[in-house]
Amino acid sequence: MSNLLSDRIVKIEKITLKIRRPRLIGRNAKAGIHGDMVTDPVVRLHTESGAVGIGWSRLSREDADALLGKPLSDLFRLPEGALEDGVIIDLPLWDLIARLSDQPLYQLLGARGSREVELYDGSVYIDDLDATDEEAVEIFKDEVQTGHDYGYQNFKIKIGRGGKWMPLQEGQDRDVLVIHTIREAAGPDAKILVDSNNGNVLNMTKEILERCEDVGLFWFEEPFPEDRNFNQPLKEFILKKGYDTLVADGESGPPPPSFFDMVQSGWIDVVQHDFRAKGLTWWKATADMIEPWGAQCAPHCWGSIIERYCHAHFAASVPHFCLQEAAPADLNGVVLDGWEEKNGCLIVPDTPGTGFDLKPDVIEQGVQAEDGFRIENS
Questions:
Q1: Are 126 and 165 within 8 A, CB to CB?
Q2: Considering only CA atoms, which of 18, 17, 43, 30 is closest in space to residue 279?
């Protein structure tokens, strides 16, 4: 491996991939309409040996200039991962090192998980503010059908209408109606998750759980800002009631300094810090830390399509991965090597690296675009 890390970066390409969703994505508990487009910044690293690594990165032209000509040993070290100067290209680096090692990324990471990574459709947002109850039911039946059309079996529902968008009790009632509608449309075997984006308080959260007992919520995500004075009594309530519902949190940042104390105490079951913002190197170390506590990993990854491939390799590398977030979208411009989606799972391939790239014409158009570039040693 030391010889591989002496390889130098001789060319860097930046492409912004734009992918359209099959429908408009509405509000969550705190933010407005999210739109129907995914904008993914993609970086491709080329080394003097001819290897290529690809992944999500917000690398700027200025930062790219500073990386050109550097040996990989200045940017990356195994088993830890990206060093300080390599964090900005963390995901492309992991792909590159796996390809140089001629092994799939999940094997480089340890291969202790399942290659069948269970997905959930995270695109069920607050799309019904101007609708009657009857109209809302039809809206969300259609959204579940869209998820099914793209192969998803599990669904996460944005709730918290009463915190901002509707009168409190009216919003709570609509949240409950939508949760029951999704359960009925998705079927009895689907995992149903809810996410209030910190838009609830403790008692609102308890009410949702009680009124949706018959749904069997798989997890409750970001019920309120993390606080031991709320998280502990919520967990005690869940245990007293005999619910199997997990508490998932950590996406919105930065979480309080006591966050991992609450995870270790068992008040937060699923850790969700953003996969792109934190990177695979951070997540690898964090997964090792929380495993003895019985906590699970489920990184936040809304807003990206190409991230799912590196993400799924991470999932296949650890035994305590929970579920992977995804959403319906057409993968125009993406080239997959061995990937399958079956029975609501993403099947991680045994091809080198992460097993994806972009089509040549998409790369060429992307580097020529205003927000793209290609730089290389002369």
A1: yes
A2: 43
